[in-house]
Amino acid sequence: MTRRTLLRAGALAGAGIVAAQWWSPQQSAAASAAGAGSRAETLDMVVFGDAASETTHALTAERSDIVTGQLSQPGRVLNPRDPAEFWGGTMAFTLKVDPKAANYVSVKFWGGDCAPALEQNWRLQVFLDGKVLGWLDQGPVDNIDLMDVAPRRPGGFYCHTLPLPLSATKGRTELQVEIRAMGRIWAYGPTADKFFYPMTTPSRGIYRAYTHTAPYFQPGADDDFGTPAAPTTRPNTDTEQLALVTDRVLKDQSQILYNRWAPTLDSYAFTTLAHGYSWPKSPAYRNPEALEKLCQAFDGTYLAWQDDATVMTSDQGWEGFGRIGAALCLTWDDLQTCLDRTVTTAPTSLLNLGFETGDGSTLYGWGAISWANFGTFARDTTVFRSGTASMRATSSGKNLLVGTLSKAVTGQGTFTFSVWVKTDGSKNAARAGVAFTDSNGAGVTSPALILASAGTTDWQQLTATFTVPAGATQYTFRVGVLGGATAYFDDVEITAPAASGTTVSRRSAYRDMMLASREYWRQHQRSYTNQAMYCSIGIYTCNRALALLSPSDAWSESTAKSWLYQAVGLEPWAGSQDKAGNWTWPLGHGHYTVTPKGLSRELGYVADYGETSGILVRMYEAVTQGAGGAPDPKLKARMITMARARSWFRHPAVDADGHRTVRIETQIGWRNEPYPGAIVYAQLLDHDSSPVSAAAVFADPDLAGYTQQMIEDGQLAPQLDTYLSTGLYTRTGLNAFLFIAEHLPAFQALAASDKRLPAGSWDTPDFVFTDEVNACIAVKRGQEVLYSSLYFRARQAVNDMARVHLISPNAEHSATVRVTSVFDKKPDNVFTVQDWVTRDWGISDPDSNVDVPGGGLAPPGPALHQAFAGETFYLAPIPADVPDPAQGSTALGSEKVLVGKAPFYVLEYAGYIVAMNTSDKQTFTYRSTSSQRAVDLKTGRQTNLRRPVRVPPLSTLVLYDAGCRES
């Protein structure tokens, strides 16, 4: 029996014997075995900037400078063009290869280099004989370098390794290799000019390039990679940073309530206002004006939706009107009076006309007019006509005018106002009046201000009645004082003619929004985990609001909650429903959006996109907060499992200043990952998630301990810069509010925990974490951590490529390497690699109006070709009840779920042997062809590899053979 027949029979019988070498049906004769990923013998090496080495390798360069780089080592940088273009400088050279083996190329970089800004995330790409090696963006074989704003390894060098196509090296002893610099790629750019950005500054230093045949590259003893300094502890600056964030949150609350036009408040702003209603420090706290403004924001969304049905699908992040539903539940008990009114087209009254709302002397909702800002004004709680406060205005000698930040609409007709004023009686310096504008905000000639009388120090009422000026549709109110005088103002009352409105009741309108949103999105559920979560939250919160607004239209709580259970993997993912309410099961009855061990499924392991703890917090708060909310222990336990699962993918690192920290593992991630990953302990801080909310809401000792470790390391404050940014302002503002007002206080109230991240330092105990459904691993062995995705970016078929990231205090390696896969390979079920260079896939998603052609957008300049084009990969078998792994997309190269993951993999790298069974029914048998004994890293026991080792379903054998590392 031939080896190929043996492997095929093993896959079919479910008990295959797998020999540990890379094997490809098309090109097995060209591949050579490399025992347990033994150390690579260097075939060739070019030292950039060294004249003799460059001459030996026939190096030619364009727009490149020789530099004396770090540790006084020579290198080169590639410069931008003039004028700047996407493509920058280039250098070409020859490197020797093995004509009979699988070859790799590695390039040496200084780990302290980083981009000064996100806009300068330049990339470097390898070319072979003029063809692109891999893809420019998110391919299984990617850029040889993708620089980010954080340094990967300050104080030392590192290498990145990529495989060379066997078709390029077979029968050859030398290749023409080229490294080209390019500008930034923004992965979400819809057009070429928004996707490809010009390179404007020199590249990072490039020091050496190597070719070798084993996947694990170990430099020679005379190749100095540096020794990073021991990390220090960052001084804690939390107090100062928290004060800045708190100030931002308070300003946001005032701005949203008093200075923002209610009909155009977006969902993040009105959600912030809804939560502010329950925060004692907010001007919205138990403020009826805040509730009315909240409803006016809902009214604006309703009327916009009536004019344009896509409002429900284009601006709401897959949640439809779910945030309105959540806000209704949150404020329901106090919202009834507002709900009894009709839908408004715009605010019909001004806010804080009694001057009661403020913080100490700070008066909310009023501001000085820019051209009459000569003096001061404040909230005064010692002088008032009624209530507890008035406004005190003092002129510095010239005119001081103070007006409402809010504005209201008016119709044509009779307008009346009154305001009470108290002065020292010496002069008629106090005044008040109305300023009108048209629908475009342009000023309209307004009646003159009314003056207070001199000769009295008692409260006096100023009143005026007049006809609204022609063309006026909106107004604000102003009070003022001049000549160095001081005046107090209180109890403004305004009667304006009614503007045109609607006769639709709010309860009816909101019921229609909730029902329409739920019905649409239940028929348009998403498949990626994070998107399915958002969609499910929206469906659930709309139904919860329906249960309050119109109980007869609402599902039962258990029916609604099934969407949440599916989104976290407690129930199989059933996809969308048809109009009649039948589940469609697009990926079969056994597919889950979350793996049993708690990782999200977005084909494979994802880093930032897999950080769903912030979404889980939102989901759980949607269940527990507001009218009708209640705890769900089963859901909470599952969410804790998911949040904890992310902890395996944290590793020791240092920040840009050499302080110890922990970063998220991104090298093995599938989707738009930066290198290195962000600073993350328990939870990623982004625009929707704070570093403490999961610990605060779930009160889990492990999550609490991970978060407390962040505080100990002084790494909370640097992350909070996000909350001070103006990008995605209201979205970030909502996150900042929840952090300051709700989650941080709850976290600070937690008891101290002794739990720490599994790889939060180099001295933590060894561990092995494997996720067979996502085919990824995290392994700590002594002071070394290995991460791998065993089917890396295999979107259309099994590509036999894994991504590895091996780190220790003294070294870092990242690589795409070859693996062995075993399954029933059918010649008529293959995918041929296309001649695409930007991406190796396309996107056809009508629900999101996304249609990216196969291969993505073509890069600027002459047409390029793919070095891997023409290679064929087999599709893995899929369950019989999966009707279409492409989920309706017919575009060539579209992502297909399940077809890229084989039932069995063998990875050998740096002495590690990983034999993973991803199937739920078959048993495979691993047999080594190189190692005789190895340590089982799960048990710590020696394993005899002279005999085959059984690998049961959904299990992984993780071994280490030190001899292979050293050989």
Quick synopsis:
With 967 residues, the chain is α+β, with helices and mostly antiparallel strands. Helix 9 packs across helix 12 and helix 12 (529-549) packs antiparallel against helix 13. The relative contact order is 0.12.
Describe this structure in words.
There is one protein chain. This protein is α+β, with helices and mostly antiparallel strands and 967 residues long. The chain contains 20 helices and 44 strands. The strands form ten sheets. Strands 16, 17, 18, 19, 20, 21, 22, 23, 24 and 25 form a ten-stranded antiparallel sheet that branches. A nine-stranded mixed sheet has the order 2-13-7-11-32-31-30-29-28. A hairpin with a 2-residue loop joins strand 14 (358-359) and strand 15 (362-363). The longest helix has 22 residues, at 238-259. The relative contact order is 0.12. Mean pLDDT is 93; it is low at 1-34.
Give the overall form: elongated
How many beta-strand runs? 44
Radius of gyration: 33 Å
Structural class: alpha+beta
Low-confidence stretches: 1-34
Biggest sheet record: 10 strands, antiparallel
Distance between the termini: 32 Å
> pLDDT average, as an integer?
93
Write the layout of secondary structure elements.
Layout: H1 3-13, E1 17-19, E2 42-47, H2 51-56, E3 60-62, E4 64-68, E5 74-78, E6 87-96, E7 104-110, E8 123-128, E9 131-132, E10 145-146, E11 157-163, H3 166-169, E12 174-182, H4 192-195, E13 208-212, H5 238-259, H6 267-276, H7 288-307, H8 311-314, H9 322-331, H10 336-339, E14 358-359, E15 362-363, E16 366-380, E17 390-404, E18 408-409, E19 414-423, E20 431-437, E21 443-444, E22 450-451, E23 460-467, E24 474-481, E25 486-495, H11 506-522, H12 529-549, H13 557-567, H14 613-624, H15 633-645, E26 650-654, E27 660-664, H16 693-698, H17 701-712, H18 716-719, H19 729-748, E28 767-771, E29 776-780, E30 785-789, E31 801-808, E32 811-818, E33 820-822, E34 830-832, E35 843-845, E36 850-852, E37 872-874, E38 904-909, E39 912-917, E40 924-927, E41 933-936, E42 942-944, E43 949-951, E44 955-960, H20 962-966
Parallel strand pairs: 1-40, 11-32
Antiparallel strand pairs: 2-13, 3-6, 4-5, 6-12, 7-11, 7-13, 8-9, 8-10, 8-12, 14-15, 16-17, 17-24, 17-25, 18-24, 19-23, 19-25, 20-21, 20-22, 20-24, 26-27, 28-29, 29-30, 30-31, 31-32, 33-38, 34-37, 35-36, 38-39, 39-44, 40-43, 41-42, 41-44
Helix pairs in contact: 5-19, 6-9, 6-19, 7-11, 9-12, 11-12, 12-13, 12-14, 14-15
